[in-house]
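Entry:
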Amino acid sequence: MTEALIRVAILDDHEYIVHSLERLLDEEPDLEVVVASTDAEDFLDRVSRTRPNIAVVDLLLHGNLLGHRVVEELTRAGVLCLAFTADQRPVPVRLAMRAGARGLVLKADPIDQLATAIRAVHETGWAPSSATATTVLANAAHVPNLSGQELACLRQAARGVPVKSIGKNLDPPISASTVRTYLNRAHSRYAEAGYPIENTVEVLLTVQREGWFDVGPGGAT
């Protein structure tokens, strides 16, 4: 009796990568790509209709960290997800794992690593990672979480907006004292996590370096 194929869905914002993965994975005798898309909305619609076993989700989509939201929605629907990214900053990976991703595969990994991870998630619910991906996962585990409000205030501050004016640019607007509260909370989160943070400027530099400013509209939630 022939074993059922593992049905795979692929989301990546680069058409070349989507087609390359589709072709390479379809060459594996036990894998079948049933959805391949560059658009998150189209991807979610097609996944809901085809019900693949595993979804391979790029984390940085068209310049924004949106992949974790796709992972979260698919996880709620009972579809197992693998995070797939070239981005080794800790924030994208942390958000994906919090959203329910069952493993991490880097685009720099050999293609057989992705196939192995897909099989592992299908069989055991969790995928082994390459040595590099394991390091990225470990680094991501230590990143403090930022709320949407904290992130919105930090974005404004990074653009050079004075604290007294930041609240006026938000929707809904908030007071300057509330802005200071959010900025202080962000500072405290990093300080409590052991980061050598002395002031708001260092918080801004760290947040930008780790990838928070690429989180799409609406923040990390």
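The radius of gyration is 19 Å.
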